[in-house]
What does this fold into?
Amino acid sequence: TELLYRLRGIDQKWQNIKGLSATLRYDYLPHGRYTLEVKAQDLHSNAESTTQSLSFEVAKKWWQTWQAILSAALLCIGFLSLIFYAWFARYRAKHRLYESLWISQLKALQAQMNPHFLYNILYTVQALVYDDRKREAGDLLGQFSELMRRMLQASEKVYIDLAEEIRHLRLYLDLEKIRFEKDFSYQIHIENIPDTQALTIPSMLLQPLVENALKHGLLHKKGAKRLDIRFQGELQANALLIEIEDNGIGREKSKTLHKSNTGFATEAIRKRIEILSKLNEYRINFEFIDKKDPQGQASGTLVRMRLVAS
It folds into this structure.
């Protein structure tokens, strides 16, 4: 006689029980109700006894209970909510920075539209027309309208390529030459920059500083007036050094001549640099250096700006 068993739903065939004190072992049974069936069989006649059954239940593991599943779901929802809240907070903060950036661009645009500059251009056009120099007047109006177009386009962008910025500065300075006539000269130096179109810088950043150099440094200087703008690439540091240098009267003397809000453009630029730095796209260092001659007298101003891409 031999004893046979099977666990309904698990064993497809009846299994032999080895020995009278054998232990039946089922590892890793899923939770649920089971029935163990046992019967005896005669080895000679194959006659079988009545099948005896034993029902039992395998309990759920603690992590399979509805309480554990609900707790895990709540934890996941809470964790995802925290992630979403943190993302949304960063998005909202960045959105506010961009709003501030657009406002600063409008202020920079306002600073660039100097009424004295506009008046001088229009007055010159009028004088050329009166002198019957219509072609020159037309050329000047064409340059002026091109400058206005570039300024408005730049105000809609956060960044522009360096080549575009240089074209913009040349156009602006060529128009400013009309006011200074033959006394004024400028030069733009480009060093260690293989492709100026591949390099981008924040828009609306340089012209207010150039205009400051003209208005506060060179306008009241007697004799030759010179402006140098230098762009120097620092490839290993992924940085760009920009210098705007004039041989004007210096900041201290300019303050005595311009007592009304002379620092508007400079303050707007400082605010703009602060916002750009918070956007974590550029680290910008910005400083004014007062130049002195060997006798200790003011000999101009140097604006130095270093942009490092993040």
Q: What stands out?
A: The longest strand covers residues 298-309.
